Amino acid sequence: MVEAIVLTLQLASLTTLILLIVGVPLGFWLARDTGIIASVVSALVALPLVLPPTVLGFYLLIGLGPNGPLAPMLAATGIRTLAFSFPGLVIGSVLFSLPFMVQPARNGFAGVGREAFEAAATLRAGPLDSFFSVALPLARGGVVTGAILSFAHTIGEFGVVLMIGGNIPGETRVLSIAIFDAVEQGDWGAAHQMSAGLLAFAFVVILTTTLIEKRAGGRAR
After folding, report:
1. 3-state secondary structure of 78
2. For the chain, what is the domain count?
3. Of 101, 108, 211, 103, which Cα lies nearest the Cα of 146?
């Protein structure tokens, strides 16, 4: 159980870090661009919200497998396959949790008025400086919410991680898979302990995000 918890926390932490680097700038761009390309990208980002996790996991299994389209590129680096490996889990988790980072960040950036950027421009701030000194601080509520939701969503993943990672102890056996295993083996006590822990964790996440949104709403008023 401890091994599964540690692996799950490692996966969630790394996934959230990657999503902060990728998802926050993406959310900023989507909040400010209303063109057709942005609409297509927004739809692609939101796909994991409506697709069954097994569908995404299936195509990741094909894409990252030894006979997938990425196989020649992976072979050039000495990697035969990313399927059923921790790096494969990370890739699947990033794609599956992407909307949980992008959408709150996008909403946060959408609430930043153009006046703030115009004021920064009068002070000769460049685009990058305006992003870090103006947009990011004003949208921090959305970014923090996205980070919390991404972390929590990765903790609770099952379908995607089962498809792309399987059930390899110490490598891909995360907490949700460990619960499934415990139930299959009739170890109801262990299943209850892990499930109760996830239930408490989920409640804390929901409560925290609610308080953040209320605080952000109060500041907006």
Report:
1. coil
2. 1
3. 101
